């Protein structure tokens, strides 16, 4: 359930109850409230790390007794401790909370700085098709994970879809989730507009495995998708116009997937996995623009924003300048759809993921001009990209079957294996290291080689396919191809490599200090067209995904202090 809107988000601070006291933490501001709890931003005194602390709202539980609210909280804690998925909010501890009702507990969990989907839509209205794909795909994956592990979420709704500062979606609030063998939880509790209308009919009170109804979550996710695209929850089937009437630009496959999820007959609905797959394949994911939808104090740490396509060059420059100032890192504009030649193994679906097989000539010229203008900057800075949020969707493509592994994995695998084999032995070995701190310098060295020797196809062995890093390097390689030049002598030195946050088996953030050497931009004849001095060291974070038995770069983010 969600109660706060963007307007109320900023005013929550003045209206929320007195901040709770938790030894070892300093409470900052309320982040949001549900029917039964208030969630506070808290800073851990020991190390300055920030968390969200969910505290029961005594006396404000409506028709649910406070005891029930507390039971839900401890239940949520137990459930969250049992599950681990990169798109599920992680819980750290449960603590006694003072300053409120006696005996109240607080769940200390990951802080989602990007706020909730409810806030986002309330601030911006309906979202784009690509943003919707970016949000729904990982949430479908989280649901699939829960369902496979015998858990039903029970309240998939806009208030429970949260975002990290880089716009990665996280599913929150397992307060009313049900597990195999549980008695049905809080019948009738959920978020109006997002609850499966068929649920009441199918409740039989049994406590067997059959009492789990994952199709209810599927309905809710379909409703959340509808909400993203239209700005409102779907009506009941008989009162609902087809999605394509409300959103004429919606791809047929996306409309069909969401409408199937909303089918009144649960037996006709896809599973969470099928729904995620269909959504992911329906359109290219796009970064979320969270900038207008978060508390003002959070804006400087956001790493998501709208793409530059569609803005005039002047608007783009002004806008980029503003963002550079905010982020205090040097960035380059991302111009999508820049006419990348097809890879041999590219499928039409990959074309769709990349936004189509080619952009207009105008866009390509602008892209080239911008790259040309920026090419004097150190290449690691050029590598920084602006759309980190799609990393998880690309990762989904490679890892979880949301993509079509049967169609893509094998040819890519073979081609990559061949390219790696052609590298010096030591390099190809370290490239395959399971340790991301070993693999990163190798990836960087291969990239230097690609740019320095104009072996541009090597970039395919560095960047995850379809990732923001690939899109950005593609502009650089297009420039080098067009100019017929290479960055001779380019060397990137990486120091202070550390893994940031808890590493996942298939996803990790590596913080590095990167400095580029001076280099000469040379034509194939050896003629030097430009000389570039050494770059200043830059603090970066590399977003890595693991696939095909090794690490790939999905995105380069500016350094942002975590926690
Ligand atoms: N980890 C978090 N980081 C940032 N904000 C959060 C976090 N968890 C919750 N919030 C904010 O607090 C709001 C309420 O949280 P939540 O839905 O978990 O409360 P609730 O009392 O369980 O709600 P209800 O019982 O009505 O479903 C969310 O919509 C969101 O805006």
From TrEMBL:
SUPFAM superfamilies: Protein kinase-like (PK-like). ATP binds at residue 54. The keyword Transmembrane applies. Its EC number is 2.7.11.1. PROSITE patterns: PROTEIN_KINASE_ATP, PROTEIN_KINASE_DOM. The chain crosses the membrane at residues 361-383. GO terms for molecular function: ATP binding; protein serine/threonine kinase activity. Residues 182-214, 334-356 are annotated as: Disordered. Residues 25-281 form the Protein kinase domain. PANTHER family: MITOGEN-ACTIVATED PROTEIN KINASE KINASE KINASE 20-RELATED, SERINE_THREONINE-PROTEIN KINASE NEKL-3. This is non-specific serine/threonine protein kinase.
């Amino acid at each position: 359930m969600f109660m706060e809107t963007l307007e109320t988000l900023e005013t929550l601070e003045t209206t929320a109850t007195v901040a709770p006291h938790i030894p070892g933490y300093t409470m900052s501001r309320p982040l949001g409230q549900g029917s039964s709890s208030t969630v506070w931003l808290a800073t851990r005194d020991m190390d300055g790390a920030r968390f969200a602390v969910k505290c029961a709202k005594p006396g404000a539980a409506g028709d649910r007794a406070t005891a029930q609210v507390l039971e839900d909280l401890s239940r949520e804690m137990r459930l969250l401790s049992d599950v681990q998925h990169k798109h599920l909010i992680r819980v750290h501890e449960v603590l006694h909370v003072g300053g409120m009702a006696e005996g109240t507990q607080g769940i200390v969990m990951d802080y989602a700085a990007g706020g909730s989907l409810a806030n986002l839509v309330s601030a911006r209205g309906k979202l784009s098709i690509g943003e919707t794909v970016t949000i729904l795909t990982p949430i479908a994956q989280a649901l699939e994970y829960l369902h496979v592990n015998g858990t039903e979420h029970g309240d998939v709704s806009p208030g429970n879809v949260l975002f990290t500062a880089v716009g990665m979606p996280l599913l929150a609030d397992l307060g009313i989730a049900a597990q195999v063998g549980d008695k049905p939880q809080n019948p009738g509790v959920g978020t109006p507009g997002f609850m499966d209308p068929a649920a009441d009919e199918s409740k039989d009170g049994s406590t067997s495995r059959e009492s789990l109804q994952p199709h209810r979550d599927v309905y809710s996710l379909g409703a959340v998708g509808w909400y993203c695209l239209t700005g409102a929850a779907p009506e009941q089937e008989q009162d609902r116009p087809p999605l394509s009437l409300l959103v004429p630009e919606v791809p047929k496959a996306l409309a069909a997937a969401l409408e199937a999820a909303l089918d009144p007959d649960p037996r006709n609905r896809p599973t969470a996995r099928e729904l995620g797959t269909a959504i992911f394949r329906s359109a290219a994911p796009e970064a979320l623009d969270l900038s207008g939808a978060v508390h003002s104090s959070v804006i400087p740490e956001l790493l998501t924003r709208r793409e530059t396509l569609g803005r005039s060059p002047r608007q783009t420059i002004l806008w980029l300048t503003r963002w550079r100032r905010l982020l205090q890192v040097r960035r380059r504009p991302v111009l999508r759809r820049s006419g990348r030649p097809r890879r041999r193994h590219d499928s039409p679906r990959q074309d769709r993921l990349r936004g189509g097989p080619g952009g207009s000539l105008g866009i390509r010229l602008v892209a080239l001009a911008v790259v040309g203008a920026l090419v004097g900057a150190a290449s690691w800075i050029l590598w920084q990209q602006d759309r980190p949020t799609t990393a998880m969707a690309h990762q989904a493509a490679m890892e979880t079957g949301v993509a079509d592994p049967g169609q893509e994995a094998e040819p890519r695998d073979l081609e990559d294996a061949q390219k790696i084999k052609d590298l010096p032995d030591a390099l190809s070995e370290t490239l395959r290291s399971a340790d991301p701190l070993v693999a990163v310098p190798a990836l960087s060295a291969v990239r230097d080689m690609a740019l320095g020797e104009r072996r541009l196809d090597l970039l395919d062995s560095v960047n995850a396919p379809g990732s923001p890093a690939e899109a950005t390097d593609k502009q650089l390689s297009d420039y080098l191809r067009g100019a017929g030049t290479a960055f001779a002598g380019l060397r990137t030195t990486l120091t202070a490599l550390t893994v940031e946050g808890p590493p996942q088996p298939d996803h990790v953030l590596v913080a590095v200090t990167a400095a580029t050497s001076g280099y000469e931009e040379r034509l194939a004849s050896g003629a030097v067209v430009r000389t570039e001095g050494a770059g200043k060291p830059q603090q970066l974070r590399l977003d890595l995904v693991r696939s095909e038995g090794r690490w790939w770069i999905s995105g380069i983010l500016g350094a942002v202090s975590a926690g």
